[in-house]
């Protein structure tokens, strides 16, 4: 019969080094860190869901102070040219459904400056073709002929969605909005 001491020493040595018979116990300090990490992850997920970041029918505003004062002129998808005073403001509103996977990208020439950007969802109880409106507040900073261009682009490689480009020619006059000579 084999020596009992030898078998005991062999098994203890085998269980310490073998990938098959390894101890799966995690040290207490690492367990504690894993618990805190799990709690933080759960809090983050709850924060995202409760804050409305995942709801498609909520609006957003970038630089809300730009929208506190009424604009001097309004423009929409039907506007092709407009005249506005120097230092005046223009509110550009284009229809947008963020759920369709497209996004608006805007560009302006040197005499214009985009001061704010927001998405305003349509009321949920009214059936509409688009789910909301994308709006930009634009300020005239230099007189002359300028251009506002909005491009509705598909995200990624969406081959079946068209690209829509809307252009507004903006003539900025030397008159200020306070003078009343618009």
Automatic annotation (TrEMBL):
Molecular function, one GO term: cysteine-type endopeptidase inhibitor activity
Domain of life, source organism: Archaea
Residues annotated as transmembrane: 34-52
Keywords (A to Z) from UniProt: Membrane, Protease inhibitor, Thiol protease inhibitor, Transmembrane, Transmembrane helix
Signal sequence bounds: none
Keyword Hydrolase: no
Cross-referenced InterPro entries: Chagasin-like_sf, Prot_inh_I42_chagasin
Residue ranges annotated for the Proteinase inhibitor I42 chagasin domain, each copy included: 87-158
Protein name: Proteinase inhibitor I42 chagasin domain-containing protein
Source organism: Methanospirillum stamsii
């Amino acid at each position: 019969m084999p020596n009992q001491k030898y078998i005991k020493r062999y098994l203890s040595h085998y269980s310490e080094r073998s990938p098959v018979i390894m101890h799966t116990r995690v040290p207490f300090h690492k367990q504690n860190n894993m618990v805190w990490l799990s709690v933080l992850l759960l809090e983050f997920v709850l924060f995202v869901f409760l804050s409305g970041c995942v709801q498609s029918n909520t609006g957003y505003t970038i630089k809300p102070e730009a929208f506190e004062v009424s604009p001097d002129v309004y423009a929409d998808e039907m506007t092709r040219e407009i005249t506005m005073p120097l230092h005046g403001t223009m509110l550009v509103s284009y229809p947008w459904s963020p759920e369709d996977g497209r996004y608006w990208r805007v560009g302006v020439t040197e005499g214009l400056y985009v001061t704010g950007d927001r998405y305003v969802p349509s009321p949920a109880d009214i059936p509409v073709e688009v789910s909301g409106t994308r709006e930009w507040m634009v300020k005239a900073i230099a007189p002359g002929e300028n251009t506002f261009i909005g491009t509705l682009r598909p995200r990624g490689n969406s081959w079946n969605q068209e690209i829509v480009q809307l252009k507004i020619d903006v003539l900025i006059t030397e008159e200020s909005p306070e003078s009343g000579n618009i």
